[in-house]
Design brief:
Number of strands: 16
Bound molecules: zinc ion, manganese (II) ion
Radius of gyration: 31 Å
Structural class: alpha+beta
Distance between the termini: 77 Å
Strand order of the largest sheet: 2-6-7-10-1-11-12-13-14
């Protein structure tokens, strides 16, 4: 609707995929496939008399994200109890961070269609996940496997101003978590969940309007639909002169509407207090620096560098930096094929290789074709040693069964036929073997030329340089045409 501006902030919950849980030694398992209640112990099910212990690796993962988001790290942060009752929360409280979170005041650069947008990050804190309720007719079942899985909450300022900006922010954040190797980003398994706070205001008013919060958005699709719906709904309310009510909403995926969930709870409803069973979390500066040194080049920086350093287009660079493993593969191939233009390597990776990976349903991490082999094939093609069909065939074969490109070309005589004399000999052979077709050509059926070309390529077992064949065949047909006896 015209005349209203939306302001949207996101609260993202991302599981930290450590081996064990946040406060106990239970393994972190895939909550969609593991047998229910097989990864639980007395600590994560909240038995009396047990003591939680902080998982150092989870803190390290949280630190990676906080540093990558350019946050200020608190040297001492505190865990707190957030008290509420719900059947998926066996302890009756969630261990979280409240007044003293791990990190505050960062930013994420989000690529937009034209340029970049800096979205401010308010805070990043550590907490634990809850169990999962499975509702069935007549009963609700509880699976505590997810109870106590490390969870990172990343809260942005309400800087997002459209559904598209929300989408790009969510995509960029998921990509960052994958680059940092803290979360595999498989949304269908619920490892990243969103909550959005949304307000709209008349375009001429600087102060933000009253906001609503939409909870439990577990996919990009739900997130974007819910945000679009709320922007429309609130604009409609304001347009008829009414006020938006501050409330917490749920998203009804089937009907595509938000519904009031409960009256907005205030922080004091949770009766936060410092967790008495855990010491303050003190981060040594040396350790923070070690984690900072570990950080890989971040997606937006790599995207920019690929354009400058390798001369890739923005979209080629985007395809190759979407996943860190693909970007690594590309750089490894470039390093092993000096002299071959990087744009050619990029072309073969995003074309042939991505197609092969797609067909076999493999991620690039499990690519059976080493980057050096791809580089060798592209180099053979680039130098004219082999022709295009041979190059494609070699790639597919090595992808499936392995092999050394140069050796295969040598042993099987796959080298491209580039000797004009040899090609002329084949042209004459085809001419001799197909007098009827040649006569048809000379009588004016020009499309026969393409067929004759195919015959010459076949006579060369597909290895001839196609452009050279085209040229030599043309020359021969011209000669025949000139010498044709008049009718
Ligand atoms: Zn446990
Ligand atoms: Mn939370």
């Amino acid at each position: 609707m015209n005349g209203f501006l939306p302001s949207i902030g996101l609260e993202v919950h991302a599981e930290l995929q450590t081996r064990s849980k946040m406060f106990c030694a239970c393994p972190v398992v895939d909550s969609t496939s593991a047998r229910p209640n097989t990864a639980v112990c007395e600590i994560c099910t909240g038995m009396p008399g047990t003591l939680p212990v902080i998982n150092q690796r989870a803190v390290e993962y949280a630190l990676r994200v906080a540093l990558a988001l350019d946050c200020t790290i608190e040297p001492t942060s505190l865990f707190a109890r957030k008290n509420y009752f719900y059947p998926d929360l066996p302890k009756g409280y969630q261990i979280s961070q409240y007044e003293h979170p791990l990190a505050q005041g960062g930013k994420l650069c989000v690529p937009l269609e034209h340029g970049e947008k800096t979205v401010r990050i308010r805070r990043v804190h550590l907490e634990e996940d809850t169990g999962k309720l499975l509702h069935q007719p007549g009963a609700s079942l509880i699976d505590y496997n997810r109870s106590g899985v490390p969870l990172l909450e990343i809260v942005s300022e309400p800087d997002l101003e459209s559904v598209e900006e929300v989408r790009r922010y969510a995509v960029a954040l998921r990509q960052l978590l994958r680059y940092l190797e803290v979360n595999h980003g498989d949304m269908e398994k619920g490892v990243i969940r969103f909550e959005a706070n949304i307000s709209v205001r008349p375009a001429d008013r600087p102060a933000l309007g009253t906001r609503t919060e939409v909870k439990n958005l577990n996919s990009f699709r739900s997130l974007l639909r819910a945000v679009a719906y709320e922007i429309d709904r609130q604009s409609g309310v304001l347009a008829v002169g009414q006020d938006v009510r501050q409330e917490t909403l749920g998203w009804d995926e089937r009907n595509g509407v938000t519904l009031p969930q409960r009256s907005k709870e205030e922080a004091h409803d949770y009766r936060y207090f410092p967790e008495p069973d855990l010491p303050p979390l003190v981060l040594e500066p040396d350790w923070i620096e070690a984690v900072r040194r570990w950080l890989p080049e971040l997606p937006s920086a790599r995207w920019t560098r690929f354009q400058h350093e390798y001369g890739l287009s923005a979209s080629q660079a985007e395809l190759l930096t979407e996943e860190r493993a693909a970007a690594d593969y590309f750089e490894a191939a470039c390093a092993s094929a000096r002299g071959v233009p990087p744009t050619e390597i990029a072309h073969w990776i995003t074309g042939e290789l991505f197609a092969l990976l797609n067909e076999t349903g493999r991620p690039i991490e499990e690519c059976p074709l080493p980057a050096s082999a791809l580089a060798a094939v592209v180099a053979l093609r680039q130098s004219g040693r082999i022709n295009l069909p041979t190059a494609k065939h070699l790639l597919a074969e090595i992808f499936g069964a392995g092999g050394d490109p140069a050796q295969m070309v040598e042993e099987r005589g796959l080298a491209q036929l580039t000797d004009p004399g040899e090609i002329d000999r084949l042209v004459l052979e085809v001419e001799r073997n197909h007098p009827v077709q040649v006569a048809q050509y000379l009588e004016g059926k020009k499309t026969i030329e393409q067929w004759l070309f195919g015959q010459v390529m076949r006579a060369a077992s597909g290895k001839a340089d196609p452009q050279l064949v085209q040229r030599r065949l043309r020359l021969r047909l011209d000669v025949l045409e000139k010498n044709r006896p008049p009718r």
